[in-house]
Amino acid sequence: MTDRTQRLSALRREMQIFEMDGFIIPRNDEHQGEYVAASSERLAWISGFTGSAGMAIVLTERAAVFVDGRYTLQAEHEVDGTLFERRHLTETPATDWLADHVTTGMKIAYDPWLHTGASLLRLKQVCEKAGAKLVAAPHNFIDAIWSDRPNAPQEPVRVHPLSYSGQSHVEKLAEIAAQLKAEKQDCMVLTLPDSIAWAFNIRGGDIPCTPVALGFALIHADESADLFMDSAKIDQTVRDHLGSAVRFHEPDQIGAVLDTLGADKKTVRFDGNSAPEWIYSRLTKAGAQVVVADDLTLMPKACKNVVEVEGMRTAHRRDGATMVRFLRWLSEQPAGPDINELSVSQKLNSLRREDDLFFDYSFPTISGSAENGAIVHYRVSPETSIPLPENGLYLVDSGGQYQDGTTDITRTIVRGNATPEMKDRFTRVLKGHIALGRARFPKGTTGSQLDVLARLPLWEAGMDYDHGTGHGVGSFLNVHEGPQRISKMPSKVALGVGMVVSNEPGYYKTGGYGIRLENLVCVQPSEGGEREMLAFETLTLCPFDVNGIEKNLLDPHEIDWLNSYHAQVREALSPLLEGEDLAWLIAATQPI
Predict the structure, then answer these.
(1) Tens digit of each residue's pLDDT (9 = 90 or more) over 514-543
(2) Which domain holds residue 78?
(3) Peptide bond between residue 483 and the one before it cis (omega within 30 degrees of 0)
(4) DSSP symbol at 514
(5) How distant, in Å, are the alpha carbons of 69, 95, 141, 152 from that of 92?
(6) Out of 37, 58, 92, 156, which could bridge 87 as a Cys pair, Cβ 3.0 to 4.6 Å?
(7) In what order do the strands lie in the sheet with 107-110?
(8) What's the CATH number where 162 sits?
(9) Distance (Å, rounded) from C-alpha 247 to C-alpha 241?
(10) pLDDT tens digits, residue range 298-326?
């Protein structure tokens, strides 16, 4: 089936066979990550929406797709409005839509592998209030009708060496075991691939842009562990690395092992924010004492050790040199049909691949010219690609997965001349970026407390942007990684030493252009003062396009910051460049 109408009809027939009145289709896979394997792209298959976050609800007579502010324009392009209502999940949450359309006696099905208990709670309450029931489906209805569904990935698992990890997996498991003992818990369930990759010092390639292997794990208070992963992906080198304390199982054996934990009345730690409802249900039915609490790997993974931080620095130096080579090349390309969003992004991708430590891109490059730049998470394709303008703005958001670190950088480039309005918006975004980048704050401060710094210059002119200001970044792991973030959304997680987070305010004029300026920064101690203070070390090394700046809008402190940053970029990258690339760098980093 290639037609969305046929697919929707087939899904409704499957629902009817099992006497269900609705089916909920999240973007998630069993591991709740941002990127999923091709075999788990169920939301895209049924609706056409390819963004990294969203949900569809299909009822017998109507259906809707829910996306956040990053993807509203994308959903308009990708989702057929005659088949699915397109809804902003903040303005019209899925729960509100469901409340308007479910009635007494209806049964709304879901796949318990693809939802957490927390995500189901509100949906369940809405159904019960309407006299309907939210019930676990006997199987995933999409999988039943997806005849040419791709096979599950089987990329080989790789050892992540101590020279990059900075701490052995034996030490990590011992520290986790000590915490479990202290809290009188027998074991912890791990379902996040990045948590497993970090804890066991392994990497893989099962999903796009993220070097992880899909699987599940149990870490026990006796410092042993169970790893549930396709044995075809694990060679003897990996087995020798993990040692005798790690027991290997096929993924479909997890139910039997959970049943044993229940039969033995074990106390099991389970992260309700990330682990699927299926596991929780299996454990409780088997008789285990389930303690819902945070995954113990999250904070040590986020607070990178000195080896990981140094790896991030070196990765960013090489990535910065690559960006300079790209921007120098781009500055010489005249406007024309051959210099378009797709060809330009392919050029940048090819330059990154020349790095000996390159593994993958950290996300699909966002290459947005003119009005496409206003689509926050725009994905260029041969069908959508347009030429870069002779005069105007081009936004490129890109990054690399290197064995020593993960990068993510956005630069907005002026092609020819920018209008006064463009320069005003560009400079306000830069002011917000600088305010956050030079912030000094007491220990215990959360990202949500700092978010206003990046938005204030836009707010003063009656503008804002509809996405977070900063996301956590892993060490050769997820480019979007928690638990830290900088956002309007309240957060209880304080920023700590070693955390890497993005600094990326933006401005988007629908149908016109987009601006985003992004560096990655690392939280470090800041000396002086009556309290323990922290500040950001900027990791990303690449010039900002000074042709977008309205200098009169910058105060002396902001000018000093920009000039100092450009001097740092010039000093760090000059040894890695030569010839025309070096000359371009020197010119691009002159004081303003």
Answers:
(1) 999 999 999 999 999 899 999 999 999 999
(2) 4-145
(3) yes
(4) E
(5) 12, 8, 25, 34
(6) 92
(7) 85-88, 63-67, 55-59, 22-26, 107-110, 133-136
(8) 3.40.350.10
(9) 12
(10) 999 999 999 999 999 999 999 999 999 99
Distance CA 386, CA 367 (A): 10
Q: Give the pair of three-digit tokens for residue 329.
A: 């090349």
320 with 291, same domain: the answer is no
3-state secondary structure string across 169-219: HHHHHHHHHHHHHHCCCCEEEECCHHHHHHHHCEECCCECCECCCCCEEEE
Single residue among 301, 327, 360 that ends a domain in this structure: 301
Contacts 24+ apart (CB under 8 A), 228-233: 228/253, 228/254, 228/257, 229/157, 230/152, 230/154, 232/154, 233/154, 233/155, 233/156, 233/157, 233/204, 233/206
Task: Report if pTM > 0.85.
Answer: yes
For residue 322, being part of any structural domain is answered with: yes
Q: Residue 297: what are its φ and ψ, rounded to 5°?
A: -85, -15
CA distance 305 to 175: 15
CATH number, domain with residue 339: 3.90.230.10
Residue 150 lies in a domain: no
- Residues written for the chain: 592
pLDDT in tens, 352-392: 999 999 999 999 999 999 999 998 888 899 989 999 999 99
Measured distance CA(4)–CA(19) in Å, rounded:
22
Cα separation of 501 and 482, whole Å?
9
- Exposure letters 542-552 (e unless 16+ CB within 10 A, then b): bbbbbebbbee
Q: Which two tokens stand for residue 375?
A: 């689509």
Residues near 459 by beta carbon (within 8 Å), at least 6 away in sequence: none
Tokens at 301, concatenated: 């993974």
Residue ending a domain, among 81, 111, 145, is 145
Q: Which two tokens stand for residue 569?
A: 């970029």
